[in-house]
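Ticket #4471: structure output looks truncated?

Reporter: J.K.
Steps to reproduce: submitted the chain below (103 residues) through the standard prediction queue, then opened the result file.
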Amino acid sequence: MTKLSFAFSLCVFLIMMVAVAVLWFVLNSIGVFDSVTDAADTLTNGTNTDVSNWLSFGRAMQISLLVGAINVVLMTALATLGALLYNLCAEMIGGLEVTLSDQ
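Returned output as attached by the reporter:
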């Protein structure tokens, strides 16, 4: 179960990284980040605003990489724990037991 959940979480990670990149390019092409930067400059009179660095493509990908890595670890651990608990409960009270095997 650990191998299967790890493979699934890696696929989710790759899909999330592609989705973040596509979403960033779409938002950038319609000018959302420029509007947010202009609004921040207006609100703070242009002093000490570093909003454009936070909205850059590199920063967006760094944050999604961090969140994705945490997601891979948590999804793998929780799926494995869930399968273990299900098998323990099925063994105690009867019912169906799910076993995955390599062929």
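Triage note (M.O.): checked the attachment and the full token line is present. The chain is about 80% helix and 0% strand.
Status: closed, working as intended.
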